[in-house]
Amino acid sequence: MPDLRTLIGLLLLWLLGWPSAAYATSSTCYGPSSVTISSFGTVTVPANTPAGTPVGNPQSGSALFSCTTINPTPSVTFTAIGLAALDASDTLTGGVITFQTSVTGIALQLTPTNPSITSHTASGFTVGSISQPSGSFTQSYSAQLVKTISGAITPGPLGSITLIGNYTATVSQGSVSFTPAGSLTLSAGTTIASSGCNSLNVSVTLPAISASQLGTTGATGGMTPVPLNLTGCPASAPVSISFSGTPATVSGTPSATVLASSGSALNVGVQLLDSSSSPAPVDITGSVKTALGTTSPSGNLGVTYYAQYYATDVAGPGIVNATATYTLTYP
Predict the structure, then answer these.
(1) In degrees, to the nearest 5, what angle opens at C-alpha 315 toward C-alphas 310 and 318?
(2) Model confidence, pTM
(3) What are residue 239's DSSP bridge partners?
(4) Residue 101 and residue 87: Cα distance in Å, rounded?
(5) Over the range 243-280, which residues count as b (16 or more CB within 10 Å of their CB) and which as e?
(6) Over pLDDT 70: what percentage of the chain?
(7) Helices (H), 78-195
(8) CB of 228 within 8 A of CB of 321?
(9) N or C, which terminus of the chain has less Cβ within 10 Å?
């Protein structure tokens, strides 16, 4: 008869040494495939837009994270890594990440939500976590362009930007299977454009003078300043100007420098003069461009022209009205 104590000892060893089929040592999780945020299209940025102002319409994207098994670790933490270059205005704090773009003075702000973040580093940030036994969440991303400098922006295209290189999953116990680990990318197709110069219609009133002052062809009088104040132009850019209008007839020939009047005064036109120290007549045919000047770093330029009565023959009393159109040329 076998020793009973020996049989009991063998039975205990056999029970203790048998592995449990229900005890998992690995977690199984899934991340997003590559996520693309649509381009902003063409975004016009006026030069007088203050630094810190959002420009263009925001775009969005989202990334789904899920775990079908979490064991033995209490939870799985997901991290975004491989961030694109951060803009100099980024503070590494708060819930917004500010990325550099290829256009100086324009940055891209990315705001993760659901869950939000409170801080990040130059290389990444914690996305969120899922606890036992399983679960999922979708992190949303809002992307917004923002102007970061004062003055005008030099226009240009924004290429594709890989904002997040990929994602990782980490556990405190056991191991984790995590696939796929996609990226978050802003697609190409955004163009930053500068706005045209902001120019206004200018109306000036010439002083009343005696018709006798315009008693001979070519006589002039009543010279009055005509201010042209441009804003919102490209920064430090050369600007040219040309004038056009209905010419007055002088000695039987349409004049290239005198505007016809639609008023009741006989034989009186209006002549524009340039902004030089010795004002000279301006061409009104529209075919002559002259340098107006260079805009300031903030995109502004102010120049003063002049207008005066011009006798196309012996003048008669009445009202004088004349109109000219100016055309600006700049990069």
Answers:
(1) 95
(2) 0.65
(3) 293
(4) 8
(5) bbbebbebeeeebebbbbbeeebbbbbbbbbbbeeebe
(6) 93
(7) none
(8) no
(9) N
For 119, other C-beta atoms within 10 Å of its C-beta total 12
User: What is the C-alpha to C-alpha distance for residues 53 and 282, in angstroms, rounded to an integer?
Assistant: 41
* C-alpha pair distances (Å), 140 with each of 111, 115, 116, 202, 323: 8, 8, 9, 50, 56
Q: How many CB atoms lie within 10 A of CB 206?
A: 15
Task: Round to whole Å and give the CA distance between 245 and 315.
Answer: 21
Task: Indicate the length of the chain as a whole number.
Answer: 331
Give me the chain's average pLDDT, please.
90
Cβ neighbourhood burial of 10 (10 Å; 0-12, 13-18, 19+): exposed
Q: What is the mean pLDDT of residues 78-100?
A: 96
Q: Rounded to whole angstroms, how far apart are CA atoms 324 and 228?
A: 13
> What are the CA-CA distances from residue 172 to residues 126, 133, 216 (Å)?
15, 15, 100
Give me the pLDDT at residue 24, please.
55
Nearest alpha carbon to residue 233 among 206, 279, 194: 194
**Both tokens of residue 10?**
């063998």
pLDDT digits (tens, 9 = 90+) for 302-319: 999 999 999 999 999 999
Tokens at 88, concatenated: 């100099």
Which of 158, 194, 189 minimizes the C-alpha distance to 331? Answer: 194
From 140-144, 231-235, 316-320, the region with the lowest mean pLDDT:
231-235
User: What domains can be seen in the chain, in order of their start residue?
Assistant: 25-194 (2.60.40), 211-329 (2.60.40.1090)
Using DSSP's 3-state secondary structure scheme, residue 151 falls into coil
